[in-house]
Amino acid sequence: MSKDPEPDQTKVMQKTVQPPKFLTEPVLDALNAGTHGAPFEVLGPHKQGNRRWIVTLQPGAAEVTARVGKAATALTRIKGDVFAAPVPGKDYTLDIVFAGGAHVTPDPYAFGPVLGDMDAYLIGEGTHQQLWRALGAHVITHEGTDGVHFAVWAPDAKRVSVVGDFNTWDGRRHAMRRVGSTGVWEIFLPALGDGTLYKYEVIGADGAARLKADPVGFGSQHPPEKASVVRDITGYGWDDADWMAARKARGALDAPVSIYEVHLGSWRRKWDEAGRPLSYKELADELIAYVTYMGFTHIELLPVSEFPFDGSWGYQPVGLYAPTIRFGPPHEFRDLIDAAHAAGVGVLLDWVPGHFPTDDHGLARFDGTALYEHADPREGFHQDWNTLIYNYGRTEVKNYLVSNALYWMEEYHLDGLRVDAVASMLYRDYSRAEGQWIPNKDGGRENYEAIDFLKEMNTTVYAAHPDVMTVAEESTSFPGVSRPVNFGGLGFGYKWNMGWMNDTLSYMQRDPVHRQYHHDNMTFGIHYAFSENFILPISHDEVVHGKGSMLSKMPGSIDEKFANLRAYYAFMWTHPGKKLLFMGCEFAQPEEWNHNAALNWEASGMGAHKGVQTLVRDLNHLYRDTPALYENDCNQSGFQWLNGDPQQSTLGYVRFGNDGTAPVVVMCNFTPVMRENFRVGVPVAGHWDEVLNTDSEVYGGGNRGNLGGVDSTATPADGQDQSVQLALPPLSVVILRLAD
Length: 740
Prior knowledge:
This protein is α+β, with helices and mostly antiparallel strands. Among the domains are: 12-110, Immunoglobulins (Immunoglobulin-like, Sandwich), CATH 2.60.40.10; 117-229, Immunoglobulins (Immunoglobulin-like, Sandwich), CATH 2.60.40; 497-532 and 551-577 and 608-740, Immunoglobulin-like, CATH 2.60.40.1180. The strands form ten sheets. It has an eight-stranded parallel β-barrel with strand order 18-21-24-27-28-29-30-31, surrounded by four helices. A six-stranded antiparallel beta sheet has the order 32-33-34-39-36-37. The longest helix is centred in the last third of the chain and has 19 residues, at 607-625.
């Protein structure tokens, strides 16, 4: 509504009228009760015979006048809050007098539809790849008037209205029109703009009224408030053309990929403002500078899609299309992405299409039916998380999710998606006892509909953006997760190697005296290391829920704990597979991660903690500067075992790059015993530089090693014609590279 008008001396015509025939008693009663399901059929301008009637519903109004140019016609109160009169001309505004003052506004019911036939067709077919450009709340100019277009899918609703401060949250005032048989409702509301709070009031198939946030809303109030917020996401001036042109090579299978996993709310906080988390703009400066310094190639953000409960870390999203307002509005989230790209850092988003919370303002029973979810709890309810499961077999739901994947790439220039909890999607019996799940049509446990959804998502994303990456967090041995769909796979670019993580951490947590009996925990991963395109993950899941910090997992004295952790990180960075490390782990934070507090940055500058941080930085730079450590991460030609003695808990291997690159030899000693003159076979004769030793003093070690490198001799060892003799410090990894 606009501001109160200046006093107008225009003469208002008063007419005594009989209501038009289409305003029957049942229609009038439904309008006044707010239950009329097709308000555009009776509200706004309508011709009856040779007269054009204007009908409006204005709860609480004392008077309503229709103004056409300088002519004004007083509308007659027909019944309740319904006003009508025959008015010459169709371009009119409404002057409405309330107890609190007068307002002038265009009539929303005088505007034609915004959505066109192609939108309706694609929505109905479930193939609208840019669904967010049709649904949601858009600041537009429509028929020459500025305002906001609202559209929402609620096929079984009896009536849907937009409500907000602008209409006193009264669902009778702005009821929407149906768009054909698509199940979509829309309305254009003039004079509204960016920042408007709104919800949808949905009278469901069960007759109950529900207030719902917009499933395709671009903004939200700060939780615990629940309203959606109109956000104009058009017109951002991206400055990352160079990055976008070259990013395909940054995430390729033969590229160095080292990912820093971040929870934005607890990475760092402002000390002088009651522990306030950093904003997107502050993170654009501080986080990006830190990640660049540390040498990581990518950041992976824990979910930022709007979520109601801080303790879910974003894994129970309500607003899949809204970057959380906790750290700023959408354009400032873009500032963060743009800053990362300017620094040569990619950004991945943790994406959660596997489930959604039961919060009353969310998707649950959105139109009074199980619309987004399955009706049967054996298919539609996650017992572990008390959440609801998307009905992937419903075309419109699948379209909603696939389009959302594209949305983050296109509107926010994300460089990829890490898809959460894929295993829970693939199997109908996931975390369910006998009798608690429904088999598929063939009697099996595979969720065919979810599998089809994942294939379609990956196919669609890679077709539109072949330069991004999709990553599956998948904890089972489901075949072909990172194999292309046309070769029978799910189509992901990468898969988290959960088996490697579980086995190797189990080994590292053991007292070294027992490690000889569990040697295969460190070696078994190579048997399947090249069956998928793997990322080796040390994620947030390993440092929460009583699991302790990475440092606290390590056995021995405090010095031995640090030595073990340094050796483990060097093993990880030299093992085939891309890398992922959760924030705080890079400096051996002593405490378990707490999402309500900042990382222990004070520890990061102290002694051995600083040493671990320096080691991770050096590992990142060594990894990025050494083709043998990344070019064949996903190809078994890039790996060969050398020494492996279970009784001594030693491991040796070679990493090969493509032709013409210097090979790297890695020797691990996972016991607290110094091993002098330790012979290791090498694949090529020559001088081998010691390019990294985790026992170096700068990392907090004892500075025992092979300063200046070693020369090979023609002494066969480990199946090689050449070998070197090394000093292997206790609980250490030594990395050698053939000198030029």
